[in-house]
Amino acid sequence: MSDGFQEWGFDTLAVRAGQHRTNEGENSEPIFLTSSYVFKNAAEAAARFSGAQPGNIYSRFTNPTVRAFEERLAALEGGEKCVATASGMVAILSTCLALLKGGDHIVASRNIFGATVLLFNNFLGKFGVETSYVPLADYDAWEKAIRPNTKLLFLETPSNPLMEIADIARLAVLARKRGCLLVVDNVFCTPVQQQPLALGADIVIHSATKYLDGQGRCVGGAIVGDAERVGKEIFGFLRTCGPSMSPFNAWVFLKGLETLPLRMKAHSANALELARWLEQQPRVKRVYYPGLASHPQHELAKKQQSGFGGVVSFEVAGGKDAAWHVIDSTRLISITANLGDTKSTITHPATTTHGRLTPEQRQEAGIGDGLIRISAGLEAVADVKQDLVRGLS
Ligand SMILES: Cc1ncc(COP(=O)(O)O)c(C=O)c1O
């Protein structure tokens, strides 16, 4: 079914890539809820286990539904291989454990998801992998932070929650020059609006939990890149250590990918309208959204992305109390830290997603107490504004 899909357009890939229709003739992809696979005889079992014959053995290694999701996402990101994982965090962990060893060094943007900082500092740090942090768009700082033992450059662009942008192509040149791998967390844009591999990145990370699902149902992650590193080294880690994606979740994400281009367009349009409106509210000190002309990297965002994403952050006057008042005054928007859902969500990063960082780390990352993050859903924007105006007036 998906043979020759290289020629298809992006929207067709989102709907069709990775489908291998069975003899039942199903139109929608089936869910293979099976933990193991049956061999014709002992010789076939031996051939599969030795690798002499390709095919399924056990669902920790491969599963047809998971593979359909992996092939579809690889096609959308323009990567040779994708491996699906049980969460976005374990996609990052698997990449690091497969590709790094004790004594290696990571340079990361300081504007990354709070749990990723904890993963790098508290867990990789225990095994002798050290991480240095640099401001996302300070290219001199990236260059200076690279040491002879630096193996990975890691960033999110746009960043969570301040929607800062890094020039991926520029960092890819630096990574290549200094012999490092460039790893980009593409959660906020998805391949619909940004394709880091085409800009020179080596590996793309996803929390499928966000826009790939799109309706806030399942937790999952993915890693996309080349056949050697992702298809062999990272897949080898996953197969042995086991943080694999469940077939049911893979099916939910697979169906989510079919509507991803349409949803991303709608999320971005709603976020832009909300951001423009927030800029006019007297109690709002600053709005962070790359689609606004006031965003310091608006031009770079226009060049590198085909859309501006669905997340808008803003700072209200009055610090934490004022921010909590806005959040607690909502009746429609969901108070939850997840994002990328059809339902608009609102959160206070300083006490939720970034609450486990020290006050100094938060200050360095620019996450103030008055900051609120909204993930624009697919409701009528007028209703979302109405919901916010209660706490803002
Ligand atoms: C940018 C980003 N990367 C990674 C993650 C981790 O993903 P997960 O929650 O699926 O483990 C998140 C989760 O919120 C995120 O926002």
TrEMBL record:
Biased composition (Polar residues): 345-355
Name of the molecule in the record: O-succinylhomoserine sulfhydrylase
Pathway of action: Amino-acid biosynthesis; L-methionine biosynthesis via de novo pathway; L-homocysteine from O-succinyl-L-homoserine: step 1/1
Family the UniProt entry places it in: Belongs to the trans-sulfuration enzymes family. MetZ subfamily.
Gene source species: Candidatus Muproteobacteria bacterium RBG_16_65_34
UniProt superkingdom: Bacteria
Keywords per UniProt: Amino-acid biosynthesis, Methionine biosynthesis, Pyridoxal phosphate, Transferase
HAMAP family xrefs: MetZ
One Pfam family here: Cys_Met_Meta_PP
NCBIfam families for the chain: O_suc_HS_sulf, PRK08133.1
EC number of this enzyme: 2.5.1.-
